[in-house]
Amino acid sequence: MTLQAPVPTPGAEPESVERAAKAELRHPASWLPTVKVTAGAFLTALVIGAVVIALSDDDVIESLKYFGTYPWDSFTRSWDAIWSSYSALVKGAVGSSNAIASTLDRSAPLICAGLGVTLAFRAGLFNIGAQGQLIIGALCAGYVGFTWNLPPFVHLVVALVAGLASGALWGAIPGFLKARTGAHEVITTIMFNYLAASVLIYALSHDTFQRPGSDNALSPKVDDSAAFPRLSIGGFDAHLGVLIALLAGAAAWWLLERSTWGFELRAVGANAHASRTAGMSVAKVYTLAMLLAGMLAGLAATMQVLGNQNSLSATLPGSIGFDAITVALLGRASPLGTVLAGLLFGAMSVGGVAMQAGAGTPKELTDVLQALIVLFVAAPALVKGMLRIKESGGGATVMAKGWGS
Amino acid sequence: MPVKLEIKGLTKKFGSFTANDHIDLTIEPGEIHCLLGENGAGKSTLMNMLYGLLDPTEGEILVDGEPVTFHSPSDAIAVGIGMVHQHFMLVPVFTVAENVMLGREQTSAPGVLSRTKASEFVHQLSERYGLQVDPSALVESLPVGAQQRVEILKALSNEAKVLILDEPTAVLTPQEIDELMDIMRSLKELGTSIIFITHKLREVRAVGDRISVIRRGKVVGTAPPTATEAELAEMMVGREVKLKVDKAPPKTGEVVLSVEGCTVVDPRGHQVVKDVSFEARAGEVLGIAGVQGNGQTELIKALLGLVRPDAGVIRLDGEDISRHGPRESLDDGIGYIPEDRSHDGYIGAFSVRENLILDLYRTDRFSRGPALRLDDIAANADHRIVEFDIRTESASTPVSSLSGGNQQKVVVAREFSRPLKVLVASQPTRGVDVGSIEFIHKRIISERDKGTAVIIVSTELDEIFALSDRIAVMYDGRIVDTVSPDIRREDIGLLMAGATPDKPEEVTV
Ligand SMILES: Nc1ncnc2c1ncn2[C@@H]1O[C@H](COP(=O)(O)OP(=O)(O)OP(=O)(O)O)[C@@H](O)[C@H]1O
Ligand SMILES: [Mg+2]
């Protein structure tokens, strides 16, 4: 094979993109390892999870006592436990239209917040602050949602804007601080998470946010006029959040891969010095990337508040903002990966509840599974060693970038 | 005990691409064996296999007649092979002693590092091989030449019998190169064999015992050090190479860039550029000569808007641009080839295609509103790859997996792809092979002939002489003199060492 690229002939230009894309596909080494490792991590986690299920099952423990005489008993009982748990998990997540609707409901905010973390990652920023951005977004969207009186559609739009804008602002501040003063975003976003949590608790103790006539730290429900439209077909009933999340994923992909601005963002994330020399403003990219990240977390917040017409409470944000980091890591900081990882995590947490109800396996098992998957993805060498996956160099992932200068 | 190293049929494939194709080579005990070859010929790949960093696809390595296989550098070190990489692998915040000891720490009690033992060890080592280093100095505070001595010491501390030096001279000043060659000669006296990779034919002829030439992954021949530079160049490239660029006398026009009283203070508060004034005219090449670290880097950064000058005015076509940032400077029509390409010139994780538009992505040619024009970006890459003979597997290959010289060509090709008023090129041919140097020099001269004002910064006197119409010499942050390229080498050497033209007797060389 010669090294020379083919001499471009007039009229051949339009195909060159396709040609390059095909060339990439012809060298699966460039993308397969990451897919393989992720799949490997998933499988390994399932296997370890199976061991955990077996060992936490009373029947199995019982049968181990006479393992010496009837070893077969232990195996069949283990198999029963594992099978019933995992099948309950899968059924609970995607086994019925009702289950699918719940999974989509759960996934939508995870995807949005995860996309925020992904975008920041690609700019070389480790955004730990999705949780705080989400809390502030929820607070503002919720406030508009239950106090203001506006016509149906307008109310929803205004509440959405309130959620997005406040999340964006909360995210942009650490970005701006990093750009101007070099304050490390990991530290500032963690602090902003504490701040946001305190703001939420303070707000909920205030009359403005409290349910009339109640002393509990619980707000009124969001008005119908500010709620997301719902899609109901038979047993399937979900708000439109997941569609918005998928759109957000597509937009993030377009922005990163197809726009000049995404080019700048990725460039700064990969080599800030060279980007600056090439005329890019590193400060602008940091600020805007965090602003967008915050906005996406704010979007996730509106799904929690406006989507399910919830009331604000201290537990409403859950751990979505932190799970978002995991989702982005599992998605290898790519929009498509993040969407898939978000769906997976949504399915697992919905399925986990069903598993507990149906098979009696504690739903915390899904947390263990999620933790294991991420652990193995983050330590690719481990999976590669165990499953003997060969990789030809260039395996550096974006994950190590966050602490880069 | 000197060792003999034999390479038989060594082959390395990256996917479908063969970087080394059945290479046979013998390194005799105690010889300096030079490897020549174009950028991307496969020299570093071969060395990485010898050092256990890459697994050969085929073939074998024999040490004193015994076949050996290396799974990691520690296997190579065990049989006495040491390597100094093209890109240094030192820990900048560690001291010299700590760096040398890395991996084989000396302890006073179990688990307790002994700094004194380490210093003592490094001290003895540097005495033994005649390599001057201060064991307690922080590596980041050392000049490049001294960092390289640390790398060599580190290799020797493992009792290396065969020392691989991959383009050690690319980043050194002429003085440091001379010192390095003395070191190589004395190591040879002590029985160490050296494999020496360089693109500078003069060096090969000065220290080499034998020369092997690699082209496109194959050994294409060997030559004695008595071969002429022209012969060696032809062997490498496979065609006749003009070692000196043809150029007509300059058709000098208006002043394009003028600098008056430019002063730059670095973050530590030192004045690094002191009251510098000069002019660059359309259609001429102004060379800025000087030993590395005399303010050239900072002066250039001020021209580009990468640092703010603390005093002085920089004018482009009469307009004051001293307050402009890098983007404005680029838009003003200043092209820039930075001295440290991997730091400032390209993004390793980006494809060749993307790097070729790194500062052009916003132009109408490559974007439509917020969207990138992917077709045009790809077409541009195909075109530049051919034009600049960039050896890459494809346009979507990340630049980090290109050979050093091809990475440089990507940067050069990009800067030549838009209309320029001023071209500022710092070490434009660092690490580039003779064939490509010829090409880049030709392009610089044709840019000059198009009426661009060209400013070349180089520590390489050959390059300064080959290109410049006028030469400004920098020493200690000032331009000490501006001379014509007819000046004798010795005289400019004196200026670079700080002698003022009227009292040259102050300097003893
Ligand atoms: N990890 C890799 N994956 C794919 N291709 C590679 C890899 N490493 C090197 N190559 C290719 O192998 C070829 C030889 O590269 P190598 O670094 O050995 O060249 P070289 O002779 O040292 O050149 P230079 O003088 O420019 O340093 C190049 O074309 C390069 O693109
Ligand atoms: Mg090399």
Secondary structure layout:
The complex is a heterodimer of chains A (405) and B (509).
Chain A: H1 16-26, H2 32-55, H3 58-64, H4 71-94, H5 97-122, H6 130-147, H7 152-181, H8 185-204, E1 218-221, E2 230-233, E3 236-239, H9 241-258, H10 260-270, H11 272-277, H12 282-307, E4 311-313, H13 320-330, H14 335-359, H15 364-378, H16 380-387
Antiparallel strand pairs in A: 1-4, 2-3
Chain B: E1 5-14, E2 17-27, E3 32-37, H1 43-50, E4 58-63, E5 66-68, H2 73-78, E6 81-84, H3 96-101, E7 107-109, E8 112-113, H4 115-129, H5 144-157, E9 162-166, H6 174-189, E10 193-197, H7 201-207, E11 210-215, E12 218-223, H8 229-237, E13 255-265, E14 271-281, E15 285-289, H9 296-304, E16 311-316, E17 319-320, H10 326-332, E18 334-337, H11 341-345, H12 352-355, E19 367-368, E20 371-372, H13 374-387, H14 404-415, E21 422-426, H15 434-449, E22 453-458, H16 461-467, E23 470-475, E24 478-483, H17 489-496
Parallel strand pairs in B: 3-10, 3-11, 6-9, 9-10, 15-22, 15-23, 18-21, 21-22
Antiparallel strand pairs in B: 1-2, 1-4, 4-5, 7-8, 11-12, 13-14, 13-16, 16-17, 19-20, 23-24
The structure holds adenosine-5'-triphosphate and magnesium ion (MG).
Overall average residue pLDDT of chain B: 89
CATH T-level topology of the largest domain in chain B? Rossmann fold
Number of domains of chain B: 3
Q: Describe the strand arrangement of the main beta sheet of chain B, using strand numbers.
A: 6-9-10-3-11-12
User: Could you name the ranges of chain B where pLDDT drops below 50 across 5 or more consecutive residues?
Assistant: 503-509
Number of helices of chain B: 17
| Strand content bin of chain B | 25-35%
Uncertain stretches of chain A? 1-33, 391-405
Strand order of the largest sheet of chain A: 1-4
Describe the global form of chain B.
globular
Rg calc of chain A:
24 Å
